[in-house]
User: Which sequence fits this backbone?
């Protein structure tokens, strides 16, 4: 059994909701408990700028349940994930929602011991991560199955301040059998719905394009699940490509999707999503992601790889430096902007 | 005689099933290639969506991730995962494509694990968006190689619903009515599903493929269409567009 409580409850046929899922519910879905927490969350618009090291140390405790923004190999908060590994955080719960390289980093550090699974251990078309697979296959991670929509809607239920949300996916499959979900009739139509429990992570980390020192933040391109994740999480760490003035933030309020009062820490981390793709800024470093997958195949090689990329460097600047620094990043920028062919650079290699 | 490989054949066949003016959620790889090809041939008004939020991109190249910036390049929406999934749940997405390690005769798919749940022999990624898309889109298609270990009724885990245990079982389980698996396009044949039993049924054989080939590469008993067709091979025009415009770097078609 991994750490943390089990918040699932037995189904009750008398009130016609039926427990279908057999697995543990890792987080407390109670909306009133969440209100109690948010009641006391600071609404002061104060300077929240700090360092990744300080934010991770202060806001992420062993045993906490973590949600990660972006989409696995796109706009992930790499600096925070590396720092979690560097600080050897243990027994975290992890929302494996569209997770690919983000989960690969946390699995390398053996940082989590329970996981709500929607998508894990793979890197889409790039292949499967051997280290992450072993982590699950060895039984070091307690898993509960969900789907991408289920986890994004579980965040949405929390963002709405509810304890569950009805949906029409998952039913009839082993995915729901190995979840912690219940099925209930719609009070209006009598039709069956899955009741997805709200997911309020203890802490979330999201990388954004720009924000001010208070945490008012803008994301370019797809938001994935981050609108709801930012609202569902009890504590929120924002890393940003650049910090801009509050005056600039106020010029386009329609562009601000995360308001400051959700945010607990702001850190400027240029190229902070590297080696993942940051829309309109830089493409994913496919060479480095392949290097990572290859290094995982041999234990000694992987140890040295982690030493080079995480433990042996102080911060994200150091990580960027050992992977080619600005020269490499300018090539990824050209790739993102589709000017690489004009500049006569190699597409994926160095 | 036009030369083509089996990946090119599967992509061309799949592309022809996408109706003009319809909507499709695709992943990376062959399904994305099929949708791009359809847009450039039979379905110029096909609307392509990606589960992470991209809608209607003018794809400059094959995406590497269903959330990378190509998926909304010059698009109509750079939205979100809930936006796409809710569009599916609302009944506005016509087609989707899925893959998997195992599929049974009702079109149920396993992409979660081989072995027991707590100590799996092999752990795969899990549902991702597959269960959602197969539950909520009108017609689900699959592009896959066909062999006995993949086409089996001894499926280790039903990640994603096909017709579950037969006619009416999706609806009984609570899934929206009127949707489910539509076509399974393999390197040997095109299969649909029998109206009464909802079991997999061979509709057409690819050039040079016999009934025995299909039977020998399937772990369960197949049904056969009364008038068994032969799959129309790729046209020169399809191949030219696929090779020159859709996948010039041969990321997908080079894998055959």
Assistant:
């Amino acid at each position: 059994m991994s750490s943390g409580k089990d918040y699932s409850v037995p189904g009750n046929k008398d009130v016609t909701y039926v427990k279908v899922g057999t697995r543990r519910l890792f987080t407390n879905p109670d909306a009133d408990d969440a209100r109690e927490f948010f009641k006391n969350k600071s609404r002061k618009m104060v300077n929240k700028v700090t360092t990744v090291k300080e934010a991770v140390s202060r806001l992420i405790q062993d045993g906490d349940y973590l949600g990660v923004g972006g989409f696995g190999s796109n706009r992930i908060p790499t600096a925070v994930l590396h720092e979690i590994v560097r600080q050897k955080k243990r027994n975290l719960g992890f929302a494996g929602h569209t997770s690919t390289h983000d989960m690969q980093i946390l699995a390398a550090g053996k940082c989590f011991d329970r996981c709500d699974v929607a998508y894990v251990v793979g890197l889409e078309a790039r292949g499967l991560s051997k280290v992450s697979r072993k982590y699950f296959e060895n039984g070091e991670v307690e898993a509960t199955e969900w789907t991408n929509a289920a986890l994004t809607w579980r965040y949405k239920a929390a963002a709405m301040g509810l304890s569950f949300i009805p949906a029409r996916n998952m039913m009839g499959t082993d995915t729901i059998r190995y979840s912690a979900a219940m099925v209930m009739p719609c009070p209006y139509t009598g039709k069956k719905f899955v009741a997805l429990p709200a997911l309020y992570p203890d802490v979330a980390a999201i990388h954004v394009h720009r924000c001010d020192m208070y945490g008012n933040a803008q994301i370019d391109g797809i938001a994935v699940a981050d609108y709801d994740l930012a609202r569902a999480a009890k504590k929120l760490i924002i890393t940003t490509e650049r910090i801009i003035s509050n005056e600039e933030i106020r010029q386009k309020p329609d562009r601000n999707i995360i308001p400051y009062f959700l945010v607990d820490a702001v850190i400027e981390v240029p190229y902070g999503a590297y080696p993942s793709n940051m829309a309109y800024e830089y493409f994913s470093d496919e060479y480095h992601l392949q290097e990572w997958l290859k290094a995982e195949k041999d234990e000694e090689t992987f140890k040295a790889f982690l030493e080079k990329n995480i433990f042996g460097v102080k911060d994200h600047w150091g990580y960027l430096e050992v992977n080619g620094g600005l020269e490499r990043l300018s090539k990824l920028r050209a790739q993102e902007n589709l000017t690489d062919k004009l500049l006569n650079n190699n597409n994926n290699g160095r | 005689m036009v030369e083509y490989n089996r990946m090119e054949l599967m992509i061309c066949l799949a592309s022809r099933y996408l109706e003009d003016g319809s909507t499709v959620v695709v992943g990376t790889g062959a399904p994305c290639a099929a949708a791009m090809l359809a847009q450039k041939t039979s379905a110029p008004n096909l609307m392509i969506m990606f589960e992470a939020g991209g809608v209607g991109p003018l794809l400059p190249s094959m995406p590497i991730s269903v959330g990378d910036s190509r998926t909304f390049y010059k698009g109509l929406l750079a939205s979100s995962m809930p936006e796409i999934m809710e569009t599916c749940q609302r009944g506005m997405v016509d087609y989707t494509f899925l893959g998997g390690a195992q599929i049974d005769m009702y079109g149920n798919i396993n992409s979660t694990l081989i072995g027991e749940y707590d100590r799996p022999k092999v752990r795969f990624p899990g549902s991702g968006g597959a269960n959602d898309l197969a539950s909520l889109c009108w017609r689900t298609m699959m592009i896959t190689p066909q062999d006995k270990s993949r086409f089996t009724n001894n499926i280790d885990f039903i990640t994603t619903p096909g017709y579950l245990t037969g006619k009416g079982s999706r609806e009984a389980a609570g899934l929206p009515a009127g949707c489910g698996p539509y076509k399974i396009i393999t390197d040997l044949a095109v299969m649909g599903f029998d109206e009464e039993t909802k079991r997999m049924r061979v509709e057409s054989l690819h050039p040079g493929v016999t009934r025995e080939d299909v039977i020998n590469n399937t772990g369960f008993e197949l049904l056969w269409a009364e008038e068994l067709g032969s799959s129309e091979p790729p046209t020169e025009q399809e191949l030219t567009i696929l090779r020159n415009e859709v996948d010039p770097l041969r990321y997908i078609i080079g894998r055959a």
About this structure: Chain B has one domain: 6-251. The first helix of chain B runs from residue 6 to 16. The two ends of chain B are 19 Å apart (CA to CA). The CA atoms of residues 28 and 64 of chain B lie 6 Å apart.
